[in-house]
Amino acid sequence: MANESVVFSQDGPVATFLLNRPEKLNALDESVREGLSAALSTLVHDPVLRVGIITGAGRAFCAGGDIDRMRDLKETHQSATFRRYIEAGHELVRKIRRLPKLVVACVNGPAAGAGVNLALACDLRIASESATFTQAFLRIGLHPDWGGTFLLPRLIGIGRAIEMFALGEPLSAAEAHRLGLVNFLAPPDQLAGETRKLAERLAAAPALPVALLKQALYERLETKLDLMMQHEVDAQMKCFDSEDFTEGLRAFLEKRRANFKGTY
Questions:
Q1: Mind listing the pLDDT tens digit for each residue in 221-235?
Q2: What structural domains does the chain harbor?
Q3: Separation CA 62–CA 84 (nearest Å)
Q4: Are 147 and 93 in contact (CB under 8 A)?
């Protein structure tokens, strides 16, 4: 089952997985990854549950990787541990995609980095009109992970994906909806209710066709997704060991613009 960093709740056929580190904007650390994986296993094995909802506590959906934890790993030269974290995130992406049940991302606020890509891994996305989406990896000298290099361009096109990755500018909920990154929008005070309505509609669908539909839509893409995520791991490790990542972390924590000087 989940842990205190991911609160599991059930209402009839709908399970909700609440990312519960509001003081860290629900940044992804070991406890969140492990808790979410356990919660998703519950969704798989409980025959009563038909739909899962992933959302965030507090004002954010998910700020991506935990910067303080990454700084500690960088300063103590724990490259192997960092690699394991990336691979664990990739396993979560695979788990969501291979579930026989539908998973909805309820994006209640800012989503950044791996937090965006967690939402992209879900089958559908409903967002608050005040939500934002930021691919912030390059800002701190890192490469995108959590399947983002595969998932994002397939939703919004390569040109806009490069724009999001390279510039790192926030994308508004309205623009995300226009581009197809988000399926549905709702006013902030109506998001929970609209998400529930959507989940109930999805839960009413017959289980076997839903499972077969996900398999049909995703199965042929899985090999390419795996190849892209392996590339993400290799690229991310090169970036982790770079001086530009050191500079990117310092700049982020000091709230200034990074002065990158590295070459490829």
A1: 877 888 889 999 999
A2: 6-188 (3.90.226.10)
A3: 20
A4: yes
